């Protein structure tokens, strides 16, 4: 677990994953296919990071609260022990460390991707 806390070590692990994916999946070993492999991993990280950022910002809190309240009012089997209004909202369940983890790794992989694209198009 301490290995994942070091953000530079996880970045190196991600580069190794990209290289492994490139060697297994690529039909031809060239820079174009390596850039494609890096794109898949980088933008998966960025997509998850941006989704966590939107959730942490509270975008889905009102919707979740409304659905819980509606379900409590409409439900035929009342559970009086259920405190629907005290349950944590989605923005309270996303930890800031996970958000930073995905944004940092996705951003650094994207910087590498842009550098490789510059090399590819200038070569």
Automatic annotation (TrEMBL):
The lineage of its organism: Bacteria, Bacillati, Bacillota, Bacilli, Bacillales. This is DUF3899 domain-containing protein. Keywords: Membrane, Transmembrane, Transmembrane helix. Residues 35-117 form the DUF3899 domain. It comes from the Bacteria. Pfam families: DUF3899. The chain crosses the membrane at residues 12-32, 38-59, 98-121.
């Amino acid at each position: 677990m301490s290995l994942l806390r070091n953000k530079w070590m996880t970045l190196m692990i991600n580069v190794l994953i990209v290289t492994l994916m490139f060697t297994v999946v690529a039909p031809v070993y060239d820079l174009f296919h390596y850039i494609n492999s890096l794109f898949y991993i980088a933008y998966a990280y960025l997509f998850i990071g941006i989704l966590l950022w939107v959730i942490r910002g509270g975008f889905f809190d009102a919707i979740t609260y409304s659905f819980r309240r509606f379900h409590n009012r409409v439900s035929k089997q009342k559970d009086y022990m259920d405190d629907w209004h005290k349950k944590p909202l989605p923005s309270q369940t996303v930890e800031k460390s996970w958000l930073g983890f995905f944004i940092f790794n996705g951003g650094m992989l994207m910087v590498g991707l842009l550098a490789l694209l510059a090399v590819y198009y200038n070569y």
